[in-house]
Amino acid sequence: MDTILQLLALIAVITGTFFSVVGVVGLVRLPDVYTRLHATGKVGVFGVVLLLVAAVLWAPLGWGKALLLIVLLMVAGPVTAHAIASAAYRLGIPMKDAVRDDLESERKKME
Amino acid sequence: MVSLRSILLLTLVYLALTANLQPLNILTGILLAVGITAVLPHPRQKLRWRRLPGMVLASLRYAFILLYDLLASGIQVARIVLSPKMPLRPGIIAIPSGCTNETAVALSAHAITLTPGEMVVEIDDAGVMYTHMLDVADAEQDILAAQKMRRELLQKIL
Amino acid sequence: MATILITTLYISLTIHIFLIGIAVWRVWRGENSIDRLISTDLVTTLMLAVLVLISLILRDSIYIDVALGLGALSFIGTVALAKFLADEKMF
Question: Which residues of chain A make contact with B116, given a CB cutoff of 8 A?
């Protein structure tokens, strides 16, 4: 039983580290602010949450706090991403090689 | 009269934080929760007992759909970031949420933003969500169908 | 089995500290203010990951308390800073 839990924790740690690496690689490689937000949001939602799943499975106590932190990250991550994206759009930071922009045409229609 | 649901949730949060199940600690948690709900009033809606089983089932189904979407699009975004050419077609598309309830609009926007590859930038008064996507072309029909299903589930929950 | 897990945790800790270095470099050399804000948020998220890893290595749950405080404070700070950058006022 203990070995199975340790194996599951091992898989969770490896996957979480992989997604953290993917998030930082995305931060360096992607072209503009909006696409970078997609990559960094993934570090919060996958990387830390999978490490916390390992903590729930393996650590002897404190799994209530770990579950609470998972809920906090799941609720707070999208709110942060939306706040930053909305601030960037209101500051007028352009999108690089965008295919379509429905919000821009809607703004033009309103004026 | 304070809402029973928020008292229960706040007490559970207190017990998870202290990790201590003695009766006196539980009593402290309940007293703190009652105090918080009395100081910060919350618009309460009636709990209808007859709709409770359907509500719980719909919530579970909503959570499972959310988890599945999370995994599928997470793998897709990882593939986009790690592939050497980076096949990006970013853009902002309008998704009508179709809900009148403000809580339902907020929950749909939360679900859309939580899945990687989609991010709500702006919501107007009619409840249209302007969503930034990494890959616009391939998935617009899928997104609209997913939003329709989400709306039906949310109408059952709320 | 436990030694493999401990070794993996140490390797993961090293990788995460290296990633924090890259994110701090992005804060220093950002294109605009929003870009720097995104990198700052990423630094705090990676610090959460480091705290959870330390709690797993030392098997002590007090570090998860620290992570809870850091998570809540960084959430409020990032949202307030984004609103301040866009509107030039807080309330």
Answer: 38, 41-42, 45
